[in-house]
Design brief:
Length: 174
């Protein structure tokens, strides 16, 4: 089963290495990993996508919670969450194919961000599944290059994940 895990960490060096080491030490592959600052610059949010049995992932959640600099671990799998990825793709688009590529990009709500004589660069923000579908459609034109972020996810609940159950010692004085 695929799991999406949100990890709130202190924004310090070495945290990413310790978390990646935990996964590799348990024999789990990280399918995607995104890390970025939160509204509190002393904290960063990691979104990790991995696969595995529920019982084993529960152990990983517990081990992550024990790591130094980890503030909160939330397995978003099975709960309501919103997730997006960003794709930038360079596609062959010479001659009559150019209009068709642009039309498909428009259907997927993609934006053409760079134009050359023979190629177009398109950006698309969407779910993983829609990005996979878009890439499959672009393959017939010839994909020259692509870059894709990992999943970024957030719980749908009305309270921000990073504000729940954080010990006061982790919070910045106002």
């Amino acid at each position: 089963m695929r799991h999406t895990i949100s990890v709130l960490v202190e924004n310090k060096f070495g945290v990413l290495a310790r978390i990646a080491g935990l996964f590799s030490g348990r024999g789990f592959n990280i399918e995607s990993l995104t890390v970025g600052p939160t509204h509190d610059h002393s904290l960063s949010k990691m979104t990790i996508v991995t696969t595995g049995e529920d019982a084993v992932l529960e152990q990983i959640d517990k081990q992550l919670s024990k790591l130094v600099n980890v503030v909160r671990v939330t397995d978003l799998t099975g709960s309501g969450f919103v997730a997006r990825e960003l794709l930038m793709i360079k596609v062959n688009a010479a001659g009559p194919a150019r209009n068709e590529v642009i039309q498909v990009a428009n259907i997927f709500k993609g934006n053409v961000v760079h134009v050359e004589h023979e190629t177009l660069v398109i950006e698309l923000t969407s779910s993983s599944e829609k990005i996979d579908s878009f890439i499959a459609l672009m393959e017939r034109f010839g994909v020259v290059e692509l870059a894709r972020t990992g999943r970024v996810a957030m719980a749908r609940s009305s309270e921000p994940t990073e504000a729940l159950d954080i010990p006061p010692s982790y919070l910045r004085p106002e």
